[in-house]
Design a protein that fits this description.
Layout: H1 6-23, H2 27-30, H3 43-47, E1 57-58, H4 69-84, H5 86-109, E2 116-119, H6 122-131, E3 140-144, H7 149-162, E4 165-169, H8 180-190, E5 195-201, H9 213-224, E6 234-238, H10 250-253, E7 257-261, E8 273-277, H11 294-301, H12 311-314, H13 323-326, H14 329-339, H15 341-360, E9 365-367, E10 380-384, H16 389-398, E11 401-402, E12 404-405, E13 413-415, H17 423-434
Parallel strand pairs: 1-11, 3-4, 3-5, 5-6, 6-7
Antiparallel strand pairs: 2-8, 7-8, 9-10, 10-13, 12-13
Helix pairs in contact: 1-5, 4-5, 5-14, 6-7, 8-9, 15-17
Length: 439
């Protein structure tokens, strides 16, 4: 820093960039950085940007992303800078890079950057959000029997600390007959006068089912019209398996909070995630980890209150993170934007439909994920007659096809075609599955 104090640095960069976020000016432009548009040319050229083993068909890429070239190069650039001069590089880049990441995320989501908190994963985001919810004794958290361990545990821990109740409902009777109307009506019937929080997962990693989030939000908004503000239902969504797949804008979705890791379908740096909150509902979530926001820190040094800062600022946990990863996250959003969100969605849908149509034609296969893309996204779950899911995944791996087993009490084989895959790979996978038989 060569004599520049933190206060001087904040004045010179931090406050200017915070103003830029509020005004909608790109921090890249203010920082004098270029904003390269990585033009999409073909799916083959896109696949070449990932250092994935070419001998494998990767159908579990949603689990933890391989970094594409622009993300990998940004990580390496920041890592080199931090290794060469840790404190100098941090002071020079921390404020402007986080602003750049927030702007890129906001542009992608169609949101205000000041409504986004940065986290390290979906689980961290869920823990921070649900762990800080303001609830009164006797109020109810409504969730479903289909949700992930992280959601169930975070909600249970919050209920134990507040005296609130957690109520679980099933959204459908059977996957074979599930419909959007059934899901919406099940939610409507499950809401009681005590319901304060509704917590759901947009795309279920247990079955591949995709919930009609907008329609569910409309039901909740209708009920809220007759409620006092302190009893208004807050709609929270785990969107990790929709972010980077579905083409949406936050203004169209209708939920109050969206939590997602960005190191899955978004191909973001490993160890990154976000929480988006509607500005009217952010105040219901109280922070549990002090922020390292430069604005909050500066106010603290002057013995001033930071309560007027956006709640998203307080909800971004402080401490020292893997900064080279967090600061490279903007490249993942730019990577998707260069392809085009609608093109991304269509490609993933096409590959998943190809896989599902092939599976459903095989007599020894039971497909559990709905065929309709209205009720599914990028995850396909199925069984092979006479074989355990683990045995199927192991045999496919032996044939150089990478899948996974759903980590739930009821286990299925799980394959997830994504942007890194080709139609030819799906055909090869179907051929190998057709040969699977119990021994």
């Amino acid at each position: 820093m060569s004599g520049m104090g933190r206060r001087d640095f904040l004045v010179r960069t931090g406050l200017t960039l915070s103003a830029a976020l509020l005004a909608g000016t790109s921090p890249r432009v203010l920082a004098g950085q270029s904003s390269p548009q990585r033009a999409f040319t073909s799916w083959d050229s896109l696949r070449a940007q990932f250092p994935l083993s070419p001998r494998l068909i990767h159908l579990a890429a949603f689990f933890l992303a391989s970094h594409p070239t622009p993300v990998r190069e940004a990580i390496e650039r920041h890592r080199d800078g931090l290794d060469a001069d840790p404190i100098g590089y941090w002071f020079e880049h921390e404020e402007k890079q986080e602003a750049t990441v927030l702007r890129a995320a906001a542009d992608y989501l169609g949101a205000n950057p000041m409504d986004i908190a940065l986290t390290d994963s979906t689980t961290m985001g869920l823990g921070l959000l649900y762990g800080g919810l303001q609830l009164r004794s006797g109020q109810e958290i409504l969730t479903t029997t289909h949700d992930h361990y992280s959601t169930e545990t975070a909600l249970r821990l919050r209920a134990e600390r507040t005296g609130a109740m957690v109520q679980q409902i099933a959204l459908y009777r059977a996957l074979k007959t599930v419909s959007r109307d059934e899901i919406v009506e099940s939610l409507r019937k499950g809401i009681s006068p005590a319901t304060r929080i509704v917590a759901v997962t947009w795309v279920h990693s247990s079955t591949g089912l995709k919930l009609p989030i907008h329609e569910m939000a409309m039901v909740i908004q209708g009920i809220n019209r007759s409620r006092d503000e302190q009893d208004r239902i807050i709609f929270c969504v785990d969107g990790v398996h929709a972010l980077g797949v579905e083409d949406f804008r936050m203004s169209e979705l209708g939920c109050d909070f969206l939590v997602a890791g960005t190191h899955k379908w978004m191909f973001g740096p490993r160890g990154t995630g976000l929480v988006w909150g509607h500005p009217k509902t952010w105040p219901i979530a109280q922070p549990t980890i002090p922020t390292f926001s430069s604005q909050a820190y500066d106010l603290w040094m002057e013995n001033k209150s930071s309560k007027d800062l956006p709640q998203s600022v307080h909800m971004t946990p402080g401490g020292f993170h893997s900064f080279e990863h967090r600061w490279a996250l903007d490249e993942a959003f730019l990577f998707h934007q260069a392809i085009g969100k609608s093109k991304v969605t269509l490609r993933i849908y096409e590959l998943n439909q190809q896989l599902k149509q092939g599976l459903v034609s095989m007599p020894h296969i039971t497909l559990h994920t709905p065929m309709s893309q209205d009720l599914s996204a990028g995850i396909v779950c199925f069984d092979v007659a006479g074989m355990t899911p683990r045995a199927v995944v192991d045999k496919l791996r032996y044939r150089s096809i990478v899948g996974s087993v759903t980590p739930y009490a009821t286990k299925y084989v799980r394959l997830a075609p994504s942007l890194i895959n080709s139609s030819k790979e799906i055909e090869t996978t179907l051929e190998e599955i057709s040969k699977l038989r119990s021994s």
